[in-house]
Amino acid sequence: MPQATKYDVIVIGTSQGGRFLPIEFAKAGRKVAVIERGPVGGVCVNFGCTPTKTMVASA
Prior knowledge:
The protein has about 60 residues and is α+β, with helices and mostly antiparallel strands. The protein has one domain (about 10-59). It is built from three helices and two strands, in the order E-H-E-H-H. The longest helix has 10 residues, at about 50-59.
């Protein structure tokens, strides 16, 4: 049987702001696990709000 891995912090979901939180915990010396079912950053960052705003601003 595999041995369990222990973490100090487990982040569930990496929404628009949540992707920076694990980095800050790791910089502080914490052992971090990230659980994400989709693209890191969430739907808004990758497919919705942010890319659309960027295209409109550059038009």
